[in-house]
């Protein structure tokens, strides 16, 4: 595969795409749970609907990532998927607002969310594969740090925007419940319009501006069966995918049920009124978490390239897990702020350090032509936790008498279980020759 070394224009183009996709996922994380609370109070029902994302992400990136590796097109292997997926995702974001504003029943609102998840995952693997396609192994930590920085800046932007609009709506309407106040004003449509603009705009930018390297000739293409079999047989890939599943499940426990956690800790229960009362606070806390993720992302990329893969991943994992252990004892807003702030730094290090791992393993095993399919599986192991966390987490909360606090220590245990898997990967460290 032909490359041009480290290109800032390519990295910034991918970072812009990552920013737009994060705005989209932040819209889902920030507003879907409180909007669903208008339909039902059941943690299991809301968690199951939000878990659609995980179910779709479990299959679509794997299949389309595999197909994109062998796509013969003058438009490239990845860009056609990015173009179509970005356009559909932008349209789907507008459909979510329209469905809620029109008062469609729960099943109709759930279907619009499902279409949004499908559209976003049409180009998930292709977006991920572009970085190792275009950046040499020894430079991927630096690239990952920049891309991760912009990805989480997208989350911060959307959460900050939504929090500002809710505060403005509360001031104008006098309504104490944030999401209810927002729904009574024209401001509710703004996050959806902004999200659609970024999703469509970034897809167009990458399609027309970012150039893919010449596709390699694949002499012995793996069948879909052989590709999945090779993952199970190769212990390095298997350990990494398993570890990633565990730490993303820990993250999703908190991300999916944050409003329920806040309502339970601060008000004693996660009733519809209490969830809507903490919506503004939840958005600001998500913004705070993303600020500290940004603080951890760039150092995480540098640590990955300079100090080693194992050290950077394990350091990030431990910093992310410790505040969750403390979470079982948290009783007030100040402690929540401190815990999420520390956890965000660890998560930023972990994200920047884990993103390049698959690309480096493919370099080591001389499978760089297959980045699409292996990053497709990479995304599946990020989507499976959404599916499991939504359903299992909701069931755990209901079985615990709607005690959302229990998700903190369970999440910490999952992260700590992942760390020995990373430590025992044989070929995680890049060789000196590969880094030059």
Automatic annotation (TrEMBL):
Domain of life: Archaea
TM region positions: 48-68, 80-100, 106-125, 146-167, 187-210, 245-266, 281-304, 311-330, 336-362, 383-400, 406-423
The keyword Cytoplasm belongs to this UniProt entry's keyword annotation: no
Domain Major facilitator superfamily (MFS) profile: 1-214, 244-436
Keywords on record: Membrane, Transmembrane, Transmembrane helix
One example GO MF annotation: transmembrane transporter activity
One Pfam family in the UniProt entry: MFS_1
PANTHER family, per the entry: MAJOR FACILITATOR SUPERFAMILY (MFS) PROFILE DOMAIN-CONTAINING PROTEIN, PTHR23528
Name recorded for this polypeptide: Hypothetical permease
Native species: Thermococcus onnurineus (strain NA1)
